[in-house]
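User: Structure tokens for this complex, please. No commentary.
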Amino acid sequence: MEVLQQVLQQLINGISLGSIYALIALGYTMIYGIIKLINFAHGDIYMVGAYIGFFAITQAHLSIVPSLLISFVVTGCLGMVIEKLAYKPLRHAPRISVLITAIGVSFFLEYTSMYFVSPTPRTFPAMFGDVAVSIGGIVINGQQMLILGITAVLMIVLTYIVQKTKTGKAMRAASFDVETAQLMGVDSDRIISYTFGIGSALAAVAGVLVGVYYNSIDPLMGIMPGMKAFVAAVLGGIGILPGAVVGGLILGIVEALVSGFISSTFRDAAAFAILILVLLVRPAGIFGKDVKEKV
Amino acid sequence: MKSLRRNDLVMLGIGIVIFAVLQVLITERIMSSFWQLNVIIIGINVIMAVSLNLINGYTGQFSLGHAGFMAAGAYISVVLTTFFHVPFALALIAGAAGAGFLGFLVGIPTLRLRGDYLAIATIGMSEIIRICIMNIDYVGGAAGFKGIPHNTTFAWVFFIMLFALFFIKNFVNSDGGRACLAIRENEVAAESMGVNTTKYKVMAFTIGAAFAGVAGGLFAHSFYLISPNSFTFMQSFNYLIMVVLGGLGSITGSIAGAFVVTFISAALASWPEFRMIIYALALILLMFYRPQGLFGYMEITDYGPFRKILKKGGRDDG
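Assistant:
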């Protein structure tokens, strides 16, 4: 009984962490789906989002929801600006050039933020005190409820945008085949820009939520979650939105279980081990379809 | 064939002259100890860059896990020299063998993947190596390995670097190297022409990993302490940047890339807060204006004045 309770508790922790990975992974998967770029800077956009949220809360004394909204909008715009300045000129360049540019953008964001906000970690103000719900000995605290609630809302909104709106339709068309979509009258530059905007905005929310959850943010906080969110995206099948969510949740749960029952130092190794396993057994991911290579 | 050997001899001569000049500067203490260390680091980075170039540039397999092999080689050799008092040369060879074997083991399954997937798998692999080292208390865990004998001298680094350069140059110009180039240009076509693609990809990966292992050994023995945090994937990015800056598929380029990157980061060491920002911007601008890197596919021997000194050998890959 004790063990079962522990497992359930770790499941809750894992789902909270996994929701954050899922939010970041959605951006990865959307961007990869359209321009086939592993946006290494995505983790750093999440970091910038966390800082914007932090300053909105501490300097402007806003409560959590308006701070989330500000971070969502500002970081979304930042994502679009980055796309316009750094990636758009390289639309027809070899993929390695774009990848290196992404690494450059990632360094740029990390160290520019470090210059402006200093490298020391900042303590996120506690937002919830001791709000917690206990169900049969399993504790769900206020931060976790916030994470789960916000994630659920965002996913519903995103699903609506992608499935029901004209922009969403264009996005899906572009991720299927950019050139054909263009021939059908989709303005691909605009769609790519929107995709970066939405992806970055989601990452920003994840950043603020992580700040609330762990109470600490620093300029290099985006590196590891960025990599892991990519693992989540690959796990679910890259380019597939529900895949990113499921991948994020699985990854979060596995990490929570590994750090709860084995050792927290092996947490990161577990994520990468999953990655290599998935790539070897089913490179297309859980929801992916095998694409045969043609000469 | 004859002219190729002649070229090698001329290059070896140039190498020895450069070595002599630098060695005099070091022993006469004209060079400050800061730059002495940096000269050693440049040498190590050249080995890393040229071995990564064999995998990424010549064979076209996008690996981002080079720091992992470096870590493996570093830790194997420091354990041997510090705990078992094995001679330095032997420890370096063991480090190379260990890292090469690891590359072989990792290469067989992961090289089935292509492009971005391979890149991510190799990052994952190198992170797993690092995290495993971090959890072995025998080698100091996350705190690092202390008390390493200071065995690395400029001479060691320089001659191992020369060896690496000649080895990889000759490999690229051998049958195996041609097969690797064919794989880079078009894997499916190479396979249909009868190239055993798996064999040559794994071969390039193993050789690259082995040299990274040697470089790791040299790196570890130039400091009193090494820690797993010296071998994160950010470090792998750094080596990739050197290779791309110099030109994927150019040995001269790798030398230049390692030199420029190390030199810039050393020169900017007094402005740590701007260093990485400038570095990042330089990287982005390079990709905008010269994505093929400084040398592209060219070698220094392909340029005018050198052509006269060196009679061109059988290089026709362009």
